Amino acid sequence: MKSHGCRGRLLVTVLLSGSMVAVAGQANKGPQTAAKTKRKASTASQSFPAELVEQGSTLFQQDCAFCHGRDAGGGESGPDLTRSKLVAGDVNGDKIGAVVRSGRPEKGMPPFDRSDDQIAALVAFIHTQRTKARNQPGGRKGVDPSDLQTGNAQAGKLYFEGTGGCAKCHSATGDLAGIATRHQGLELEMRMLYPEHAKSKVSVTLASGQTMTGVLEYLDEFTVGLVDESGTYHSWRTGDVQYKVDAPVEAHVRQFGKYTDADIHNLMAYLQTLH
Q1: Half-sphere exposure of residue 79, counting CA atoms within 13 Å on the CB side?
Q2: Is the entire prediction scored with pTM above 0.90?
Q3: pLDDT value at residue 183
């Protein structure tokens, strides 16, 4: 990692600034104290070359700012990374890198395919912002609207109607008509990535062969229940029927692994045209 050398130089500087007696005393305190010292050093403020931080800032604005804010101080739903315990315990990207590459689909964060150099740059920027926040405490920042207006709407439309498969379930003139007037900014972004309040549908086939469909209202290992189009609730024992659930949230979660960062920005740009 590019940041390794910087961290090494920082650590050497800290050690040389102390007295030789203190260093010798630390060496004689045994492995348990040494381990504690290592853990403490791993969470200390880390410094990085300005060029690396600038590269990280560019990547952060492109991939992360729409949820975490321009300065990594948090958005309306994205957590404040400058106060994150994970960031505090990160050394040379060992924790941040894993989250960036794997994502956190259950929290609405898609994975990002980034090289070691790109991860190092992001780590440099995030840690630098954390250091600034610690030295100059301030309030939680929001997401600038311009962070959500960086995509290409035409490319987003092509993705929506083609490779993204969005048109299989949604329609720009149907369920999504006027969505940009009902939801703006980060709220629209989050609904696109993870529509947590979307209702699941269910189709239940009875022993008689009759099929009933509606909105899934209840499901566990013993009972399945739905509300039909008239608003009437029906339920059955799961062992007595066959049922199939259509859960929009699951489809969106599966999509996380297929998105590129350009797909997300372009699709968001397209949705913002649906007034």
Answers
A1: 13
A2: no
A3: 82
